[in-house]
Amino acid sequence: MMSEENGGGILANLLKEPEDGRAWYVIHCYAGYENKVRHGIEQRIETMNMQDYIFDVVVPTKEEIEIKEGSRKTVEKRVFPGYILVQLVLSEESWYVVRNTPGVTGFVGMGNDPTPLREDEVARILKNMEEGSPTIKFDYRIGEKVRIRNGPFVEMIGSVSEIDGDRAKVKVMVSFFGRETPVELDFAQVEKV
User: Which of 5, 37, 97, 166 meets the CB 3.0–4.6 Å disulfide criterion with 29?
Assistant: First the structure.
């Protein structure tokens, strides 16, 4: 991949200064159908020969690690459920193609006048999507009883005393030889009792 200084990179390509009147618009659709709508728009671009008017369709997502009952799962979460970004040259034809795609409920804007996003807004959304580290979603609370799933304290039950979401660690107070001892564990090493 080329560096952004040389004009390469996904973000640099998506944010090229539009010379042909193209701009990014927000499309509202049914929540949960974003990928189907994206696919529908992409198909209509091909079948209706709109490649010179509709350029890109993006469902803003962010990678998230969910930790539930001691198991870790990576999932893609929609940043704006029910919304899609479309880069196009606004004309009667392009508006019609996108607006009449099954699942699309309309463009975001005043009445029938779609409002394009500012370049800094698009840059922020796309940069947020490209950033590497996924967020960690967990369902533990301080004071909650948990069971240790593995390691030297396996099957011991203790209470959560600290949570470090950035490092995906939890500190659990367990009774060891008659006294409370803090044990630092990964989120995946414990489960709710």
Answer: 37
Report whether 103 contacts 33 (CB < 8 A).
Answer: yes
As a whole number of angstroms, the distance between CA 54 and CA 112 comes to: 18
Give, for 61, the enclosing helix (H) or strand (E). strand 61-68
Q: What is the pLDDT of residues 30-65, one digit of tens each?
A: 989 999 999 999 999 999 999 999 999 999 988 887
Provide the CATH number for the domain formed by 4-136 in this structure.
Answer: 3.30.70.940
pLDDT digits (tens, 9 = 90+) for 129-177: 777 667 777 778 899 999 888 888 889 999 999 998 778 889 999 988 8
Tell which CATH architecture fits domain 140-192: Roll (2.30)
For the chain, the helix, strand and coil percentages under 3-state DSSP, each to the nearest 5? 25, 40, 35
